[in-house]
Amino acid sequence: DFSSYCPYRFPDGSVAINTTKGMFLSDPVTGHFNLLTFKNRNRTIIPDYLYPITDNEYWLGTEMAFFKWQKGASDLDEVTVEVGARGSDLYTNNVYQVKQFLPDEVNGEKGMWMPVLGYGISYYIFSSGQLLEFTGKGKGFTPLGNLLSRRLAKDSKGNIWLATAGGLYMWSRKNKLGDNNFVGYVNEPGNKNSIPFSDINDVHVDEHDHVWFTGTGNGLAEFDGQKFYQYFPENPASSKAFSGMHWDKSRRIWIITKNGLEVFDRDAKKFLHVDVNDGALNNSIAAYFSNEQDG
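Predicted structure:
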């Protein structure tokens, strides 16, 4: 038995499925999967999230750090990280769970945003190797109120939205790079105008800069910049325990739940319940998935 994380489809049609046992990588011709396992400094590395840098080189977020990886290789290359920026060698950490990558350029510095479970959010600067860590500490600023960061998204103004176990947070583009300053949205019991729930596991920003997010047991929510809206499926067979979402090209949101899939039509504001053929799999679908090129 094992848990699976974010799958990734390569340009040649092959697929990588990251799991607690390693990476299952399919052959582009036969479709057969082979297991790749990784080690770094005598530690077993659990892969989580892949992001393409070139056609054959990728960044790999893991449960212990982030690495460079060549497709098909069993070796991982450490990324140069300026030790002085964080006071210790990143690759001696036993836990540094990088859940996603989001490339950006802030104040002229190209780099990569990363939500790190238990460490808030980090920004890696390509030119210097400096790793800026936005944790719960900050003087003169409003820092993150929760460090259990899961996913992030960027709106058209460049603001970064962060899903955490204790609220939705926004890092404004008006900040200077390094400013540990966030706007937080946390549920206030009894206040119907506050965010409907704080335990958030996924976030996405649409073409109108509306922020969408999901929560365990709390369904789907939308923030238009002024008001929050919450949506639940009406089908009795549906679950309200949402654990991740994927957007297709037909204005639909595919949502993983504890009982199959929910497909949300953004125009009709309605859910369609999709039952998994094997009922035993309804409550064990991976938290993230991907669509084919045709949407």
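Summary: Confidence is low (pLDDT under 50) at residues 278-287.
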